[in-house]
Amino acid sequence: DTEVTQTPKHLVMGMTNKKSLKCEQHMGHRAMYWYKQKAKKPPELMFVYSYEKLSINESVPSRFSPECPNSSLLNLHLHALQPEDSALYLCASSQEHGRGHQPQHFGDGTRLSIL
Amino acid sequence: ILNVEQSPQSLHVQEGDSTNFTCSFPSSNFYALHWYRWETAKSPEALFVMTLNGDEKKKGRISATLNTKEGYSYLYIKGSQPEDSATYLCAFDTGRRALTFGSGTRLQVQP
Fold first, then answer.
1. Which residue spans within chain A are E strands per DSSP?
2. How far away is chain A from the Cα of B58, in angstroms, using its nearest Cα?
3. For position B96, what pLDDT does the model report?
4. Which residues of A touch B42 (CB under 8 A)?
5. Alpha-carbon distance A107 to B45, whole Å?
6. Tell me, what's the pLDDT at A40?
7. Pick from A29, A31, B19, B32: CA 20 to 30 A from residue A67's CA?
8. What is the per-residue pLDDT across B48-96, written as a single tens digit (0 to 9) for each?
9. How far is CA B111 from CA B14, B75, B83, B85, B108, in A?
10. Which three-class secondary structure state does DSSP give residue B84?
């Protein structure tokens, strides 16, 4: 069982819908990440939160809006997405960002399809 | 843009075969090199975090080596089993931003 829980596992939405992806970890990690992974490509970083503050935004379009309500939770709010945004969205956490040579722990991902 | 390459892209072996794959990465700004195993419909699982030139790490039948001067790491699997079938990802870590992943090596072990 993964220690990083993502919900929902699958999501189908229209281009005008608003939805949110959720990620939760209870390992006391202070860094959390969103990645996007298209088929047969490596995961690509979208956002990094460090101590509940956004520290990296990899030029992600504003139709993706991250939120970190507390140290255990990370959300990704979706609005007016495009068909090319269909992908697997992975959440990960680590003890700290950029310190201590720690691995990242991943969730199972949310498979998102935009109609 | 950081260039992290893995080879081969895919590999089919028989149960009991030993195998190895390569990850190449930039030789500058090195902080760590991560290896992950990603089984279908599961989450990527951390195997190793390699930090020092000459590092060798082992976990059961899987081991990895690191050469930071020339920018490569090898992952070895001894006596492959069907449950080893997965995509093996390496990720380059500069310690400043986040991980840059390679495209992975997809391993299929036939019983």
1. 4-7, 10-13, 18-25, 31-37, 44-50, 53-57, 64-70, 73-79, 87-94, 105-106, 110-114
2. 16
3. 79
4. 2, 108
5. 9
6. 84
7. B32
8. 999 999 999 999 999 999 999 999 999 999 999 999 999 999 999 988 7
9. 6, 21, 10, 11, 10
10. helix
pLDDT exceeds 90 at position A74: yes
Nearest-angstrom CA–CA distance, B64 and B50 = 8
Q: B83 phi and psi, to 5 degrees?
A: -70, -10
Q: Which of A4, A44, A104 to mutate to test the interface with B (most CBs of B within 10 A)?
A: A104
A45 and B96 within 8 Å at the Cβ level: the answer is no
Which residues on B lie below 8 Å from A2 (Cβ)? 42-43
Contact B102 A42 (CB under 8 A): yes
Contact call for A56 and B42, based on CB within 8 A: no
- pLDDT over 90 (residue A107): yes
Residues of B within 8 A of A109 (CB-CB) are 43
Higher-confidence position of B3 and A66: A66
Q: Shortest CA distance to A103 belongs to which of A115, A88, A92?
A: A92
* pLDDT single digits (tens) B36-58: 999 988 999 999 999 999 999 99
Chain B neighbors of A40, CB-CB under 8 A: 103
